[in-house]
Amino acid sequence: MALSSLFFFLFFLSSALWVSSASSVSDPTVKTFIVQVHPDAVKPSVFPTQAHWYASSLSSSSAADRILHTYSTVFRGFSARLSPSEADSLRALPHVAALIPEQVRHVHTTRSPEFLGLKSTDSAGLLKESDFGSDLVIGVIDTGIWPERQSFNDKEIGPVPPKWKGECVAGDNFPSTSCNRKLIGARFFCAGYEATNGRMNQSTEFRSPRDSDGHGTHTASIAAGRYVFPASTLGYARGVASGMAPKARLAAYKVCWNSGCYDSDILAAFDAAVADGVDVISLSVGGVVTPYYLDSIAIGAYGAVESGVFVSASAGNGGPGGLTVTNIAPWVTTVGAGTIDRDFPADVKLGKGRIVSGVSIYGGPGLTPGRMYPLIYAGSEGGDGYSASLCLDGSLDPSLVKGKIVVCDRGINSRAAKGEVVKKAGGIGMILANGVFDGEGLVADCHVLPAASVGAVGGDEIRKYIEAARKSKSLPTATIIFKGTRVGVRPAPVVASFSARGPNPVSPEIIKPDVIAPGLNILAAWPDNVGPSGIPSDKRKTEFNILSGTSMACPHVSGLAALLKAAHPEWSPAAIRSALMTTAYTVDNRGENMLDESSGNTSTVMDYGAGHVHPQKAIDPGLIYDLTTYDYIDFLCNSNYTTNNIRVVTRKKADCSGAKRAGHTGNLNYPSLSVTFQQYGIKHKLSSHFIRTVTNVGEANSVYKVSVRPPSGVKVMVEPEKLVFRRVGQRLNFLVRVQSHEVKLSPGSSSMRTGSIIWSDGKHTVTSPLVVTMQQPL
Ligand SMILES: *[C@@H]1O[C@H](CO)[C@@H](O)[C@H](O)[C@H]1NC(C)=O
Ligand SMILES: *[C@@H]1O[C@H](CO)[C@@H](O)[C@H](O)[C@H]1NC(C)=O
Ligand SMILES: *[C@@H]1O[C@H](CO)[C@@H](O)[C@H](O)[C@H]1NC(C)=O
């Protein structure tokens, strides 16, 4: 009797819980918060676990079920759905240090319609198939993984490293035997996602580490895919596919679902990855920029870096405008995207004989060679201009479009989705034309019908040709000539149009992105259940696919970081980043300054940071600019964050008195230097200084001499001008004084000048960009 009433009670309680969590999905005032528990608060012994204690902070009886995740490695606390009043009462509890509202993030491919597009890489060959890097584990926080891909085979790979504590978590269509000696761990985190959206639809996504999107499989194989030959997608980019670190191990942490990637899940992935023992975390995901103490990616990354884990993150695809860079915390390595010297040309031939060049990776049945097809612009033509032809679902009239090549404008719906709309309406081909905002940046997509993308100038020519034909009552015609894969393209690299740019919106003293890496038209592994265009009706299967985005650039750096860590096990995450930055290059394969794809103009430090990564040189940088967590704490102090806010990031009580003595944020021992001068009416000296410390990681008894390329109109002095290192590991300081004259600027405007500081011992060249920005207050 007693037993059955207890049973009844439990049942009742758990169904009450169910009702409460279900209603919290529909109640818009209930939101997910990440709750930090004071680093020095001690769990009262009445609670058997941290989770019980955390649940006790929530008032209702359903407390335990409302905890989404508990965190203990990179963060101390938990996440839960809270009403405004519950959030307030939690804040008042003595052991609660902070409440961080959740953000929803998204992956950084250009597949998302809001982004512009671009190109690819073959980074094979750096260290061949030696065992190099096989002890290193790269954790990829993304959309999961398709474990059966050849890129993840474990032939000739040794046993799992003994330090590994991770797991292969089973779920939908993903038995725990899905992992092997290459893919050594897989987990999924969906509590935050489901708390907001309700239980996921398991017929459209896998409630497991299996990838139902393709993005995570692609990024994981860029970082550490095995050599696979022949690799290609729809016949394009034929050759050997390989990740940057082909022998490194992979662990997949799935946090991104159909409606995005939720912070509470991302933080849980960081927590698990660091506890599992990864060496590198690769994160091709981002959202809006917030102060570091409200940014769970910055918080998770700090905990990872403190444990010696290198974190690389994509800069975002919000370019080419300024101030668009994301994932900017100074302990994260922020990666923008460049092109490679391979592209996929396609010519649009117009009836009057003109050729407009574009790009395409269409690989199905083609247009009849030599035949011209009627051409139509699907916006309303004529009048004072064109109304856009967006080729949205249902917007095309089959009677007008049938048998024709349709010109669609970039924007709103995804590039591949436009092709699907044209095909459904009976169109025979598509020309995807950039508008002024898109400029000349082009992304090659695996379209479902013969299609080519053209830039804004070419797009205008085609639109004008159609309009002229309409006025003269003649029939506009065109065809598309696919030219396959072209290699040896010059110039390359070029900063990809979409790649997000500086200045850094939170800490202008820290130049972001740090570096760029290949991110346009990248060939990498792809799941079976998603067609290469990514749209649901596309039933084609490809082992590989070509994607573009800073999402694709980031895992190049993650793989490279694993190789550097294998070569230099003692290097900190900051040392690895320093090696990548000080050896990066800023000239293209013509020997000229790298260009910006969006404008064709020379690009700047705000576009590429220190430059494009140079794997071979990064292995032997000579000197490094190292950093510890104490330096980051000083930096946060000098950024005027309160000690409470600093504690949210660092999980420690910060003593800022020492940091204030150390000076200013520009003194963070970063491999790049940036200062902003505010010009207030009165003539006065504009000067500042930077203190830097370099560590000799080259040879003993080396002498480095400085050379300075000052920004125009700026006087730069370095003291001393010579650094004499007796031994390896020795650290020496130098001081950089910067003095500028006032420049004529209109109120509210600014002017940026760039230069560099270069240390050389005759063998190594250690380069740091130096940026001086003059601002005229309003
Ligand atoms: C799940 O998705 C499938 C396929 O789109 C759909 O048919 C089904 O109705 C969905 N189920 C729910 C519960 O939404
Ligand atoms: C490119 O350079 C030209 C000439 O210096 C300049 O007029 C133009 O504004 C630049 N375009 C962009 C987008 O910066
Ligand atoms: C921090 O505050 C000090 C004193 O008010 C000020 O001089 C300094 O510029 C501030 N630093 C930042 C990064 O805002």
Automatic annotation (TrEMBL):
UniProt-listed GO biological process terms: proteolysis; system development
Cited Pfam families: fn3_6 (PF17766), Inhibitor_I9 (PF05922), PA (PF02225), Peptidase_S8 (PF00082)
Domain Inhibitor I9: 32-108
Domain Peptidase S8/S53 stretches: 133-601
UniProt keyword Zinc present: no
Intracellular or extracellular location(s): Secreted
Residue ranges constituting the Subtilisin-like protease fibronectin type-III domain according to the UniProt record: 667-772
Family membership: Belongs to the peptidase S8 family.
Official protein name in the record: Uncharacterized protein
